[in-house]
Amino acid sequence: MDYLSNFSPSITLIRYFIYQYKR
Fold first, then answer.
1. Is 2 left (phi over 0), alpha (psi -120 to 50) or beta?
2. Which helix (H) or strand (E) holds 7?
3. Is the pTM value of this prediction over 0.70?
4. CA 8, CA 17: separation in Å to the nearest integer?
5. What's the superkingdom here (predicted)?
């Protein structure tokens, strides 16, 4: 699960942006 952990920050940032954009 190291791969996911490493990409965790990236995914979180992208998700946050999408959430703000979808609003």
1. alpha
2. helix 2-22
3. no
4. 14
5. Bacteria
